Amino acid sequence: MTQLRVGAITYDYYPFDIRVRRMAEAAADAGYEMHVVCLRDQGESSHEVCNGVITDRLPFSRGFGRPLPLTILSWLWFLMLAGGVITWQHLRRPYDVIIAHNMPDFLVFAALIPRLLGAKVVLDVQDVSPELMAAKSNGRLKGILYRLSAIQERISTAFSSHVITVGWPFEERLKARGVPARKLSLVLNSADPRLFPAARRCPPPSQDPNYGGPFIVMYYGTIAERNGLDTAVRALALALPRAQRLRLDIMGRGEYLPEVQRLAEELGIAEHVQFSTPCPSEKIVDFVLHGDAGIIPYRYDGFAELVLPTKAYEQAWMQRPIIASDTDAIRSMFRSGSILLCDPNSPQSFADALVELYHHPELRQTLAERAAEDYTPYRWEQVRSEYQELLASFRRRTVRQVPATNPR
Predict the structure, then answer these.
(1) pTM of the prediction?
(2) In whole angstroms, how far apart are CA 144 and each of 132, 148, 149?
(3) What is the per-residue pLDDT for 101?
(4) Residue 378 — pLDDT band, cuts 50, 70, 90?
(5) Where does the pLDDT of residue 64 fall: very low under 50, low under 70, confident under 90, or very high at 90 and above?
(6) Which of 28, 62, 283, 375 is the most exposed place for a label (fewest CB within 10 A)?
(7) Structural domains present in the chain
(8) CB half-sphere exposure, 340, CA atoms < 13 A
(9) Whole-angstrom distance, CA of residue 236 vs CA of residue 269
(10) Residue 346 half-sphere exposure, CB side, CA atoms within 13 Å?
């Protein structure tokens, strides 16, 4: 049997995108040939082999805060160039399967010619497009974007041989919009043990009775309005009179960053909020371990409440207690006694949770232990094995038969 050949297309940076990296390296670990077509960030080479993953980068910048028309034009231009690269590679040596990581969903059409020539095409739905596009808009535009996104999602999933998504809430939405259950698989955003090794797990700094530094609450990832960082900053301002050593550390980038920085200044707590730019994937564990607790203050906006954040898996695995918005997605993984659940519309709710964690080390330890227990069935080792089996099933469907030779 020939070696499975897998291609991937992502409108993001590699290996910066943690999910794409996890899935690509899982394929490479299984002995499959793995090729990723992606964006090119400053200082990156156009061609590189990263941990066994062949990477071709196109001269695009993802950008944040662009007007929607410019974003769509950039998607379309990337679609054409990525399609050219993946088609040329397929004609030279055929792929068995090509994975398009959204957004946008219609990136699957970069693999149109390979699909016609026999390759299986998989759409990885990291974000459900209709809800996300609606959450990014207001007024009449919200409804228009929802309907247009739903149409392109329907066409893209119908074109795809298979659809992968990141969690149960997204899976239910896709089923409700007509994707057959037999065509759907889950690949959860579990913590990658290469980036979050078991040997690094340790109690938070505040558990040391001799520790006298700040009590650090951390957030890392995209900084968009839907992620509720303004709620976290307001909660910090409300909590500080009762917990003077509190500090909020935010690492990330996004169009909402200036607003969060302005709010911290306006509330007079800028010295208690530290901002840093994103770091390489290998360094995220250091950011997690320097903190005492994680905060995930996602809004109810039709999209964010459906998200199972990667950071929740990572913090649970690294034994950090978590404060999070009370959403169905969070409850689908964690028991109520495993994390502190808050009203996403109430900074006071988050402030009370911050104060409770700050003053009760035994509660922090209990929450961390219970969250780690809840996470155990979803560890990447198990998810990776299931994903590798899924890829192997595509090889079995597409294996090229060699005619038998009649004995003389």
Answers:
(1) 0.88
(2) 13, 6, 8
(3) 98
(4) very high
(5) low
(6) 283
(7) 5-189+379-398 (3.40.50.2000), 198-378 (3.40.50.2000)
(8) 25
(9) 8
(10) 11
